[in-house]
């Protein structure tokens, strides 16, 4: 559409570079306005809506889903660990199994590790906060683009 008007659309490589810059939101949209008063903003808005908001939201949702699955797996493994811990303690209590030196050292190591803060445990919560902030930004940006399109149509 804009091959003759825009230098950034003159070749396939330049067009791909321009679209990548648009995806990163580092593109000057005034060039489209100067090339065509209606088609420029319309094509720019459609591209931003499709790529930036829909595809990026889908990408972030996939990542978030995988983090939640990993978090559920960790919780499930903890339940199995609790059961094996209870069985082992029962065996020690009844005298069916004797405590070895390695188990004593391992118990001390576990107690030492439990005293330290693990930032990985708060990572899923931080991801949820990030996604909420991105959803708010996307909603505001969509509203701004929508009002700009309405203003452009009325001009």
TrEMBL record:
<feature type="transmembrane region" description="Helical">
    <location>
        <begin position="38"/>
        <end position="63"/>
    </location>
</feature>
<protein>
    <recommendedName>
        <fullName>Polycystin cation channel PKD1/PKD2 domain-containing protein</fullName>
    </recommendedName>
</protein>
<dbReference type="Pfam" id="PF08016">
    <property type="entry name" value="PKD_channel"/>
</dbReference>
<feature type="domain" description="Polycystin cation channel PKD1/PKD2">
    <location>
        <begin position="4"/>
        <end position="68"/>
    </location>
</feature>
<keyword id="KW-0812">Transmembrane</keyword>
<keyword id="KW-0472">Membrane</keyword>
<dbReference type="InterPro" id="IPR013122">
    <property type="entry name" value="PKD1_2_channel"/>
</dbReference>
<dbReference type="GO" id="GO:0005262">
    <property type="term" value="F:calcium channel activity"/>
</dbReference>
<dbReference type="GO" id="GO:0050982">
    <property type="term" value="P:detection of mechanical stimulus"/>
</dbReference>
<feature type="transmembrane region" description="Helical">
    <location>
        <begin position="133"/>
        <end position="153"/>
    </location>
</feature>
<dbReference type="GO" id="GO:0016020">
    <property type="term" value="C:membrane"/>
</dbReference>
<dbReference type="InterPro" id="IPR051223">
    <property type="entry name" value="Polycystin"/>
</dbReference>
<keyword id="KW-1133">Transmembrane helix</keyword>
<comment type="similarity">
    <text>Belongs to the polycystin family.</text>
</comment>
